[in-house]
Amino acid sequence: MMLFNELVLASHNAGKLKELQAMLGDAVRVRSIGEFSDIEPEETGLSFIENAILKARNAARISGLPALADDSGLAVDHLGGAPGIYSARYAGGQGDAANNAKLLDALKDVPDAERGAQFVCALALLRHPDDPLPILCEGLWHGRILHSAQGEHGFGYDPLFWVPERDCSSAELAPKDKNQLSHRARAMAQLKQRLGIA
Ligand SMILES: O=P(O)(O)OP(=O)(O)OP(=O)(O)OC[C@H]1O[C@@H](n2cnc3c(O)ncnc32)[C@H](O)[C@@H]1O
Ligand SMILES: [Mg+2]
Fold first, then answer.
1. Does residue 1 surpass a pLDDT of 70?
2. Which domain holds residue 67?
3. At residue 73, what are phi and psi to the nearest 5 degrees?
4. Of 25, 59, 144, 163, which has fewest CB within 10 angstroms of its CB?
5. What is the residue with the minimal CA distance to atom 18 of ligand 1?
């Protein structure tokens, strides 16, 4: 049962915002945290869940609205799950191109069979900043890291993420297809069920 008709999305990532908005549809009025503040909270948590809660709590406090945050990243088997929660900061906060270059370099001589990886998404919804029981949902997407970038859609690590079920990179998927298959899509499907808007 939906208890509100408006929420703020606690993300400063344009690619994520677009996907989350498309997935939520018009069941709820979505505001962006950018309307309220340009300051990004420090992601000091040691898990995706902790960081999602921290970002949502900060947004709920700033906006006075229920807040939904997404903390996500790429966990590469050969790297023991790195970059994981540090995915956005993998190359020192220099952006997607630098992150992708560093990842390709880290896997330079690694054969296909050992290039398995998962995209991870944790969603946290807080109805207010002191919500003692956030709604938490998670999604995983299994794939493999390519040897070079492919595709123009999406954002972040998408050009390097091979999607076995579609035989292409996630940056080669049409946005509507990525939004049905991705880690974010899986977490969002759970959230919509919890909210009764599935
Ligand atoms: O924290 P916010 O403001 O939401 O924006 P952010 O970009 O910093 O987001 P995260 O802290 O959750 O870091 C996520 C990292 O994982 C990458 N990532 C997450 N989901 C992705 C997806 O669907 N496709 C490609 N890369 C993704 C993304 O590019 C970032 O480098
Ligand atoms: Mg972030």
1. no
2. 6-195
3. 175, -175
4. 25
5. 73
User: Best substitution site from 9, 90, 157, 173 to test ligand 1's pocket, by max atoms within 8 Å of Cβ?
Assistant: 157
- 71 given a catalytic annotation: yes
Q: Give a yes or no: residue 1 inside a domain.
A: no
pLDDT of 2 above 80 = no
With a 6 Å cutoff on the Cβ, whether 72 touches ligand 1 is yes
* CATH code for the domain of 114: 3.90.950.10
Residue 162 CB partners (closer than 8 Å, separation 6+): 143, 144, 145, 146, 168, 169, 170
pLDDT confidence of residue 165: 96
> Which residue in 38, 71, 109, 130 is the catalytic one?
71
- What percentage of residues in the chain have a pLDDT greater than 70? 99
CA dist 75 and 71 (Å) reads 13
State the pLDDT at residue 198: 82
